[in-house]
Protein backbone atom coordinates (compact mmCIF):
# COMPACT_ATOMS: atom_id res chain seq x y z
CA UNK A 1 0.00 0.00 0.00
CA UNK A 2 1.29 3.45 -0.88
CA UNK A 3 2.59 5.33 2.15
CA UNK A 4 0.39 8.30 1.34
CA UNK A 5 -2.71 6.21 2.15
CA UNK A 6 -1.22 5.01 5.43
CA UNK A 7 -0.09 8.55 6.23
CA UNK A 8 -3.62 9.83 5.54
CA UNK A 9 -5.04 7.27 7.99
CA UNK A 10 -2.42 8.29 10.57
CA UNK A 11 -3.20 12.02 10.14
CA UNK A 12 -6.95 11.35 10.33
CA UNK A 13 -6.55 9.44 13.59
CA UNK A 14 -4.16 11.99 15.08
CA UNK A 15 -6.15 15.08 13.98
CA UNK A 16 -9.52 13.61 14.95
CA UNK A 17 -8.74 11.72 18.15
CA UNK A 18 -5.48 13.31 19.30
CA UNK A 19 -1.78 12.40 19.37
CA UNK A 20 -2.15 10.18 22.45
CA UNK A 21 -4.74 7.95 20.72
CA UNK A 22 -2.51 7.74 17.62
CA UNK A 23 0.48 6.77 19.79
CA UNK A 24 -1.60 4.07 21.51
CA UNK A 25 -2.79 2.66 18.17
CA UNK A 26 0.75 2.66 16.71
CA UNK A 27 2.06 0.87 19.82
CA UNK A 28 -0.75 -1.71 19.87
CA UNK A 29 -0.34 -2.40 16.14
CA UNK A 30 3.37 -3.05 16.83
CA UNK A 31 4.70 -1.39 13.65
CA UNK A 32 8.11 -0.72 15.11
CA UNK A 33 7.83 2.97 14.15
CA UNK A 34 5.61 5.95 15.02
CA UNK A 35 5.04 7.63 11.66
CA UNK A 36 4.36 6.53 8.11
CA UNK A 37 6.45 8.01 5.33
CA UNK A 38 4.22 9.28 2.54
CA UNK A 39 6.54 8.30 -0.32
CA UNK A 40 7.29 4.72 0.78
CA UNK A 41 5.30 1.56 0.10
CA UNK A 42 4.08 -0.75 2.87
CA UNK A 43 2.68 -4.27 2.95
CA UNK A 44 -1.12 -4.35 2.56
CA UNK A 45 -1.30 -6.45 5.75
CA UNK A 46 0.17 -3.52 7.69
CA UNK A 47 -2.69 -1.26 6.53
CA UNK A 48 -5.26 -3.89 7.48
CA UNK A 49 -3.62 -4.22 10.89
CA UNK A 50 -3.67 -0.43 11.31
CA UNK A 51 -7.39 -0.24 10.53
CA UNK A 52 -8.41 -3.17 12.73
CA UNK A 53 -6.28 -1.89 15.64
CA UNK A 54 -7.76 1.61 15.30
CA UNK A 55 -11.32 0.26 15.11
CA UNK A 56 -10.76 -1.90 18.17
CA UNK A 57 -9.15 0.97 20.09
CA UNK A 58 -11.98 3.37 19.21
CA UNK A 59 -14.78 0.77 19.61
CA UNK A 60 -15.98 1.50 16.07
CA UNK A 61 -16.67 -0.79 13.14
CA UNK A 62 -13.99 -0.54 10.44
CA UNK A 63 -16.57 0.58 7.84
CA UNK A 64 -17.64 3.53 10.06
CA UNK A 65 -13.97 4.42 10.60
CA UNK A 66 -13.35 4.36 6.83
CA UNK A 67 -16.39 6.54 6.18
CA UNK A 68 -15.12 9.04 8.77
CA UNK A 69 -11.73 8.96 7.00
CA UNK A 70 -13.46 9.92 3.72
CA UNK A 71 -15.20 12.84 5.43
CA UNK A 72 -11.90 13.97 6.95
CA UNK A 73 -10.16 13.90 3.55
CA UNK A 74 -12.57 16.53 2.24
CA UNK A 75 -13.48 18.61 5.28
CA UNK A 76 -10.38 18.95 7.47
CA UNK A 77 -8.25 22.09 6.93
CA UNK A 78 -5.04 20.01 6.95
CA UNK A 79 -6.04 18.32 3.68
CA UNK A 80 -7.55 21.28 1.81
CA UNK A 81 -5.70 20.27 -1.38
CA UNK A 82 -7.89 17.17 -1.78
CA UNK A 83 -11.05 19.25 -1.48
CA UNK A 84 -9.71 21.66 -4.11
CA UNK A 85 -8.87 18.79 -6.47
CA UNK A 86 -12.41 17.45 -6.12
CA UNK A 87 -14.06 20.87 -6.50
CA UNK A 88 -12.44 21.21 -9.92
CA UNK A 89 -14.98 18.54 -10.92
CA UNK A 90 -17.77 21.03 -11.54
CA UNK A 91 -19.96 23.92 -10.48
CA UNK A 92 -22.58 21.72 -8.83
CA UNK A 93 -22.83 18.34 -7.14
CA UNK A 94 -24.14 16.56 -10.22
CA UNK A 95 -21.18 17.77 -12.30
CA UNK A 96 -18.88 16.66 -9.48
CA UNK A 97 -20.39 13.16 -9.46
CA UNK A 98 -19.87 12.71 -13.20
CA UNK A 99 -16.29 14.01 -12.86
CA UNK A 100 -15.47 10.99 -10.68
CA UNK A 101 -15.11 8.99 -13.90
CA UNK A 102 -11.96 11.05 -14.61
CA UNK A 103 -10.47 11.29 -11.09
CA UNK A 104 -8.07 8.38 -11.58
CA UNK A 105 -6.45 10.08 -14.57
CA UNK A 106 -6.26 13.47 -12.86
CA UNK A 107 -4.71 11.90 -9.75
CA UNK A 108 -2.08 10.08 -11.81
CA UNK A 109 -0.92 13.40 -13.23
CA UNK A 110 0.04 14.51 -9.72
CA UNK A 111 1.22 11.16 -8.27
CA UNK A 112 1.80 8.50 -10.94
CA UNK A 113 2.53 5.67 -8.49
CA UNK A 114 -0.41 6.33 -6.13
CA UNK A 115 -3.00 3.60 -6.40
CA UNK A 116 -6.31 5.45 -6.60
CA UNK A 117 -9.58 3.56 -6.78
CA UNK A 118 -11.10 2.74 -10.14
CA UNK A 119 -14.39 4.63 -10.14
CA UNK A 120 -17.33 4.28 -12.49
CA UNK A 121 -20.27 6.63 -12.01
CA UNK A 122 -23.54 6.53 -13.93
CA UNK A 123 -27.16 7.60 -13.75
CA UNK A 124 -29.83 4.90 -13.49
CA UNK A 125 -33.14 4.92 -15.36
CA UNK A 126 -35.02 5.72 -12.14
CA UNK A 127 -33.00 8.93 -11.60
CA UNK A 128 -30.75 7.50 -8.89
CA UNK A 129 -27.02 7.18 -9.41
CA UNK A 130 -24.52 4.40 -8.88
CA UNK A 131 -20.84 4.62 -8.06
CA UNK A 132 -18.77 1.47 -8.55
CA UNK A 133 -15.48 1.50 -6.66
CA UNK A 134 -12.63 -0.99 -7.07
CA UNK A 135 -9.49 -0.75 -4.94
CA UNK A 136 -7.00 -3.22 -3.49
CA UNK A 137 -7.96 -2.10 0.02
CA UNK A 138 -11.22 -3.81 0.95
CA UNK A 139 -13.74 -1.28 2.19
CA UNK A 140 -12.43 1.68 0.19
CA UNK A 141 -16.03 2.17 -0.93
CA UNK A 142 -16.82 3.32 2.60
CA UNK A 143 -14.13 5.99 2.24
CA UNK A 144 -15.92 7.11 -0.93
CA UNK A 145 -19.25 7.27 0.95
CA UNK A 146 -17.59 9.69 3.39
CA UNK A 147 -16.07 11.69 0.54
CA UNK A 148 -19.42 11.85 -1.28
CA UNK A 149 -21.27 12.92 1.89
CA UNK A 150 -18.72 15.65 2.70
CA UNK A 151 -18.75 16.90 -0.89
CA UNK A 152 -22.56 17.08 -0.80
CA UNK A 153 -22.23 19.36 2.24
CA UNK A 154 -19.53 21.31 0.43
CA UNK A 155 -21.86 21.96 -2.52
CA UNK A 156 -24.96 22.41 -0.34
CA UNK A 157 -26.71 19.36 -1.84
CA UNK A 158 -28.98 16.95 0.00
CA UNK A 159 -28.15 13.33 -0.83
CA UNK A 160 -28.90 9.85 0.44
CA UNK A 161 -25.93 7.48 0.16
CA UNK A 162 -25.97 3.75 0.72
CA UNK A 163 -23.09 1.30 0.50
CA UNK A 164 -24.76 -1.75 -1.06
CA UNK A 165 -21.96 -4.28 -0.64
CA UNK A 166 -19.57 -6.06 -2.95
CA UNK A 167 -19.80 -7.87 -6.26
CA UNK A 168 -17.95 -11.17 -6.61
CA UNK A 169 -15.29 -9.29 -8.61
CA UNK A 170 -14.49 -7.14 -5.55
CA UNK A 171 -16.22 -3.98 -6.76
CA UNK A 172 -18.12 -2.04 -4.12
CA UNK A 173 -21.47 -0.53 -5.06
CA UNK A 174 -22.72 2.80 -3.72
CA UNK A 175 -26.25 4.00 -4.41
CA UNK A 176 -26.69 7.78 -4.53
CA UNK A 177 -29.98 9.64 -4.50
CA UNK A 178 -29.63 13.35 -5.17
CA UNK A 179 -32.68 14.63 -3.29
CA UNK A 180 -32.06 18.36 -3.71
CA UNK A 181 -29.12 19.97 -5.43
CA UNK A 182 -29.47 23.40 -3.74
CA UNK A 183 -30.63 22.35 -0.29
CA UNK A 184 -28.33 24.69 1.67
CA UNK A 185 -25.60 27.20 1.08
CA UNK A 186 -22.41 25.34 0.24
CA UNK A 187 -18.91 26.22 1.39
CA UNK A 188 -17.28 29.01 -0.54
CA UNK A 189 -14.84 27.98 -3.23
CA UNK A 190 -12.66 30.23 -5.33
CA UNK A 191 -10.95 28.59 -8.29
CA UNK A 192 -8.06 31.02 -8.08
CA UNK A 193 -7.57 30.94 -4.29
CA UNK A 194 -4.08 30.29 -2.98
CA UNK A 195 -3.59 27.21 -0.84
CA UNK A 196 -1.19 27.23 2.04
TrEMBL record:
GO molecular function term, any single one: heme binding
Domain of life: Bacteria
PANTHER family in the cross-refs: GUANYLATE CYCLASE SOLUBLE SUBUNIT BETA-2 (PTHR45655), SOLUBLE GUANYLATE CYCLASE GCY-32-RELATED (PTHR45655:SF13)
Name of the protein this chain belongs to: Heme NO binding protein
Gene3D superfamilies: H-NOX domain
Heme NO-binding domain ranges (all copies): 2-157
Amino acid sequence: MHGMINRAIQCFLRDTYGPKIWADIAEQADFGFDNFEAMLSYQDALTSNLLSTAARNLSKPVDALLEDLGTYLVSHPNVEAIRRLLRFGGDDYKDFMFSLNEIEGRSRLALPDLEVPELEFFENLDGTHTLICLHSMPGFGYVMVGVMRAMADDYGALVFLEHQGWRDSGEEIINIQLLEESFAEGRSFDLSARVG
